[in-house]
Amino acid sequence: MSVADVPRADPLGGACGVLPTRVPLARGADAARALARDGAVVLTGAEVTADALVVAAATVLGARLRELYPLRERASRDGGPVHLHADGLDFVVDVGGVPTRRRHPDEDHVLVQSVRPAPSGGASLVLDAYRLVDRLAEEDPELHAFLTTVDVDLYGAWAGLRGLPALPRVARHVEFTRAGRRVVRRTDGAVPLRRDPREGYVREMLARFEARVHGLEASLPRLSLARGEILLLDNYRCWHGRDPHEGERSVRILTLRGEDAR
């Protein structure tokens, strides 16, 4: 990669960055308030087990829980950066002849537990996408209009993935749920709709959006999760990513839908 290919740091990242508060898991009500205020919270004092993520979700979200999706474990050695994104995938498998959903496009919360922190690097970054979209309305009205008014195929770039439905998932990057919650999406899978007469424009705006997001990352605050700590995110509001790392790193991830999800 040449110097010209490296995104310039965008100072807007500092204005939209989130450094989540650490709250003991035992203080579920305090964690819920921090999550509502900031869109993210770090839960401390959890066991380093797969059950801990389910317990954490129930402790903080309580009766608002509706659907949990299968736990995922992610391990990497000398990993590259993971750019800012919101979780969500339209992924269905056949289990004993019954279609079974393993991921949902409208997961509204995500929990990430540090199982093995990297010896070097691997810090997490979190961005308040609500704040970003509001700022874009003033700073880049054309991009804001694209995100709020233009339909795309959210996962069309991954059409060959087994389990991903052939039916396009059509949506805008910014939408609202029936309960009035704003959803701000960010996925590397978005492509123009098939035979969209604006295909060239859509590709141009998707590239502009990606460049803007990548440029924000350098200005965001960094968060290093200790072993066992859990980052809980409002997935409709906040995007997350991580820095490159050296050595072994592993996390467990749980996504879910609550009562206000689409």
From TrEMBL:
Return the Pfam families for the record: TauD
Name the InterPro entries on file.
TauD-like_sf, TauD/TfdA-like
Q: Name one GO molecular function term.
A: dioxygenase activity
Lineage, top-rank taxon, reads Bacteria
Question: Which segments does the entry list as coiled coil?
Answer: none
The reply on keyword Nucleotidyltransferase is no
Residue span, TauD/TfdA-like domain: 29-251
Q: Which UniProt keywords apply?
A: Dioxygenase, Iron, Oxidoreductase
Task: Report if keyword Nucleotide-binding is assigned.
Answer: no
Q: What is this protein called?
A: Gamma-butyrobetaine dioxygenase
Species the sequence originates in:
Streptomyces zhaozhouensis
